[in-house]
Structure formats: structure tokens, C-alpha cells
Amino acid sequence: VLRYRALGHVLLRVGEDVGDETVSLVMCAARAAGVGVTVSSPVTRNVSTDVVIEDDSVLSHRLAGVAAWPTRPEKIRFLGACSDELRLGALDSGVALDDVAFVAHPATEARRWFLEQAVSATNHRHGNANGPAQRRDILSSNSAPHSL
Known about the structure:
The chain has 148 residues and is an alpha/beta fold. The protein is built from 4 helices and 7 strands; from the N terminus they run E-E-H-E-E-H-E-H-E-H-E. It has helices at 20-33, 56-63, 84-93, 106-110, and strands at residues 2-6, 9-14, 36-41, 51-53, 75-79, 96-98, 114-118. The strands form 2 sheets. Strands 4-3-2-5-6 form a 5-stranded parallel sheet, covered by helices on one side. A two-stranded antiparallel sheet has the order 1-7. The longest helix has 14 residues, at 20-33. The radius of gyration is 26 Å and the shape is elongated. The N and C termini lie far apart (54 Å). The model has no long low-confidence stretch (mean pLDDT 84).
């Protein structure tokens, strides 16, 4: 059985080669999942959310202090191209990276915004350890007590 939990907050880094329509669609997917998003881009964007304008080196430097951010992201999602310096800075920050391209298929894109957890019930080797307790009498009612 799989259980899905929405991420708390994601840093969305949008490269120069990604269009504003794609950014808007990604933001719709995040809103539908109930995930908070901070958008970072090296260029100005015409989208309905606030965008932090910063180049790769500034963001890489800022990621070094991610532990002190008021809202620490659970994931950094890269859309489009990014520099090796930024990728290394993101890895050093200890935050999970996701560089899979946006997919317009809702079921596929939804996986980017949730944590997937496998849940299982374990049966004990002597039976179901989670089931009701069975009392076993050591001495049956037909046998006489033993004397030493």
C-alpha cells in the first residue's frame, strides 16, 4: 500500500530557457497539491506569483545558509538549465534535488509534489502478532497438578 504526503515547501529554480506558461502550469500543480513554493529565476517572469530574481552564483551562495531560512525547503526543483556551481551548491545544502522536466500529465506531475511511502503490515513468524491475544493454559483442566 502506498501513502502520499504533500511536501511542505519547495524551492522552484526556473532557468532562462523555460517559458512563463510552463512556470504557471507548475505553480498550478503545486497549489493543487497544497505545497508552498518559492520561485527563483535569473530573469524577470510574467507569472502570478512573486519571483526572486538572482543568478546561479547568488542562489548557490544563499543555499549555503539554507538551514537558517524561516521556511526551509524540502526539495529544490530545477526547471530548465542550471550551472554546475548551482547544482553543487544545492547538493551541499542537504536538500533533495529534483531535475525532472515538467510533464503536463497530472498523475505523473503529481509525484513531484508528494512524498511516497510504502506501508505494510508485518505478520510475525508465529502468526499475526497484531491480532487478538490468545490465552493458552499450560495445564489443561483434565490433568492433575504436578508435585515436586
